[in-house]
Amino acid sequence: MPFHNANFNSKPGLALQILIVFLPPVFVLQSVFLFPAMIVSLALAWIMLRRRGKTWKDVGFYKSAHPGRLLLITLIATVILFPVSHAAIRMVKIITASTPNLEAFGILHGNIAALAGGLVIAWIFGAFIEELLFRGFLLNTLYDLFSQKNCPHWITWMAAIVVTAIFTGTGHLYQGIVGMIGTGLIAIGFSAIYLLNRRNLWSCILAHGLYDTVAFVLVYLGILLH
Fold it and tell me: What is the pTM of this model?
């Protein structure tokens, strides 16, 4: 299929873009090359948006006209999301009779240097790059892909949110079934925060970073290792 703008905005073109953008990290999901692959995916996402006549600003990467409102909604939503998501994860643990595999984060326990390094990585790759990829690129591309003339916008957004959550959960395969479902549920929360803040990416970047910060500190203290 020729890569013209018309094709890039078609349903098959949108599906192809998603495949192209997320292939690099899929191939190196559990290796040291994951972070470089995410940077490659980010560059590919930027290229795909450009081919569709869009920029990162069009999908929410812009300075809010009401930063106080954005910050307040984000903080309140994140404070609610943390206990709600962990209550849901506990239910999943009971239903599946299993626990998430958190071995990858074991190094944080009692190790202040590892905690500091982990927080830097969490904010750069988890909060910033993941949110640009999943909320900025994927969620909006799925919305365009699922859009139908007679379908209410909220149904299209819900479908896009659910599929984005599935993508997110699959990306955390190394955490086992509980970790996959848990991260998928958390992804739904980040998507909700994004929409509550009128699709401003800084809201979910901040929410993601704060969520991971609290989680990492709890792992450091030995509270979230099981």
Answer: 0.92
